[in-house]
Write a structure and sequence with these properties.
Blueprint lengths: L18 H11 L2 H14 L3 E3 L5 H18 L23 H7 L32 H9 L6 H12 L11 H5 L6 H13 L10 H10 L6 H9 L1 H5 L3 H8 L3 H12 L21 E6 L2 E6 L7 E3 L1 H8 L1 H9 L1 H38 L1 H6 L9 H8 L3 H7 L4 E4 L2 E4 L7 E2 L9 E2 H13 L9 H9 L7 H10 L5 H4 L3
Parallel strand pairs: 2-5
Antiparallel strand pairs: 1-4, 2-3, 5-6, 7-8
């Protein structure tokens, strides 16, 4: 069998992503803190970059020119051509004039920093109010353990118990396995365990939920034996709100059982979570929304992002005719400066594009969500990436990258930009009013919290009540969002 080989030519178009373009796209997805770190690393690696500091009249002139240039670029659409790799220097040594190139390069346009309407740090919120200190649960318990008077064996056992408590406050291995590792009696081991369960937060070291709640009930100021009996024998009945059965067996009224249930609600089912064991996560807003004269203005947070320009030292070196001739004589030095200068200019341009793109997206979001910022979450309008992309003339993927890990600080709170994108429900073919999924959750939650506990609302009934507000959604949609919010079915919510 003969093999026939043919040659053919085929012309097709394709998008080639250069390393510089990939880096520019990556910058879009970085959070504010990640952006600061990326710039700091680049400044260490690239000697041609330096931070621009204002302080004299010449710098103020450069700054005004920079702001004017930024105003022109603020509303210009970001296109793929912005990231094209254009030759920064001539490839032929004889045709390249270093002195002329440096003179033609305007540093006032080659800087990145505060843009129009930039954030003034003195007017911003206090970030210390956004976070709390981080503590380790084991260290917290060990600190209390060292204040107790114990024998060597008891201290060893207590240390083993604390070392095997997970983040929720429960023992991660069976208690018997811990006791087998030390030489002490079972009675002594239980006393040590009860001691740890009395530590703050109460209930840590429990073997299960019943043990955890019982440990908290025992140390109450007004100890109630009936509550302890309910926890031991009727925890499932209490969960199912079968008050009649509990009251009959305990010989008390249903009202008293209901009171005990309210007391039990104050107990923490996962006491270990009361002491944070994870690193504190700081959130720094990229955008600030302020209401000025009844209108919402959007300003970008440039705090911590240095304004960059080409190093003055290298500029003077390139302007020097003697140094220029030295560079011509050293091919390796020339190639190094070319690479670093190209990288520096690209970084400056990429950061400018990133900041401008973020503020354009934020302005479009604020324009569409005016009622949300004025009246609260109940007025969040349905909005998808395509709505913003079409308004500002960008691709949906760009909007998606810009809204990733970006936060907006407003008079009603701090929100991730992704929060504002919610699919519309209740409109279209149903003929009802279209609302966002977040607003639907709020409405369902309000109905559930105000229902009669003896006659809880079914999913069908909730749908009928929402239809009176011209929100027409299916029963299965109600069930979906009810389950997402953690509410059980009506049969399990009913008090018997």
């Amino acid at each position: 069998m003969a093999i026939k080989i043919n040659q053919s030519l085929k012309q097709s178009q394709g998008l080639m992503m250069t390393p510089q373009l990939q880096h520019a796209i990556k910058l879009l997805t970085l959070s504010h803190m990640e952006m600061q770190n990326a710039i700091s690393e680049e400044m260490v690696e690239n000697p041609l970059l330096e931070e621009y500091n204002s302080g004299n009249s010449q710098n103020e002139t450069d700054n005004s020119e920079y702001i004017a240039s930024n105003m022109e670029n603020q509303n210009r659409e970001t296109k793929s051509e912005d990231f094209d790799e254009k030759p920064i220097m001539a490839t032929q040594e004889d045709h390249f004039d270093w002195s002329k190139y440096v003179d033609s390069f305007d540093n006032s346009k080659g800087e990145i920093g505060s843009s129009v309407g930039s954030f003034d740090g003195e007017e911003g919120p206090n970030y210390e109010n956004f976070v709390s200190g981080s503590r380790d649960l084991a260290d917290h318990l060990m600190l209390q353990l060292r204040m107790e008077v114990l024998s060597e064996e008891e201290f060893e056992l207590a240390s083993l118990i604390i070392g095997n408590i997970n983040d929720d406050g429960y023992l991660s291995i069976p208690f018997d396995e811990i006791v087998c590792q030390v030489s002490c009696s079972e009675e002594t081991a239980l006393e040590v365990l009860r001691m740890i369960q009395r530590f703050d937060p109460n209930g840590c070291g429990a073997r299960d939920l019943k043990d955890c709640l019982l440990a908290q009930a025992v140390i109450m100021e007004e100890r109630t034996p009936l509550l302890e009996k309910i926890i031991k024998d009727h925890l499932v009945d209490l969960q199912n709100k079968n008050y009649q059965k509990i009251a009959k067996e305990a010989g008390v009224s249903e009202e008293f059982i209901s009171e005990m249930r309210q007391v039990l609600k104050r107990f923490h089912p996962k006491p270990g979570r009361l002491v944070s064991s994870t690193d504190t996560q700081y959130v720094i807003p990229d955008i600030f929304v302020k209401e000025i004269g009844g209108e919402f203005s959007v300003v970008v947070n440039d705090e911590g992002i240095p304004r960059l320009r080409i190093s003055k030292h290298y500029k003077e070196m390139l302007q020097s005719s003697q140094n220029s001739s030295d560079l011509k004589g050293s091919e390796e030095a020339k190639e190094y400066v070319q690479e670093k200068l190209k990288s520096a200019l690209w970084l400056i341009k990429s950061i400018q594009t990133r900041q401008n793109t973020i503020i354009k997206v934020a302005k479009a979001i604020v324009r569409k969500q005016q009622d949300f910022f004025r009246k609260g979450p109940k007025y969040l309008k349905p909005m998808v990436l395509r709505n913003i992309a079409e308004e500002i003339g960008m691709h949906e993927s760009t909007v998606s990258r810009v809204t990733t890990n970006k936060y907006l600080h407003s008079p009603i709170g701090v929100f991730e930009l992704k929060f504002f994108f919610n699919a519309g429900l209740g409109g279209g073919k149903t003929g009802g009013e279209e609302i966002s999924s977040e607003v639907l959750k709020i409405k369902i939650k309000n109905l559930l919290e105000n229902e009669n506990p003896k006659r809880p609302l079914s999913d069908q009934k909730i749908g009928e009540l929402l239809s009176r507000e011209n929100i027409k959604i299916a029963r299965r949609t109600v069930a979906k969002y009810r389950e997402v919010m953690g509410y059980p079915s009506s049969s399990k919510r009913k008090i018997k």
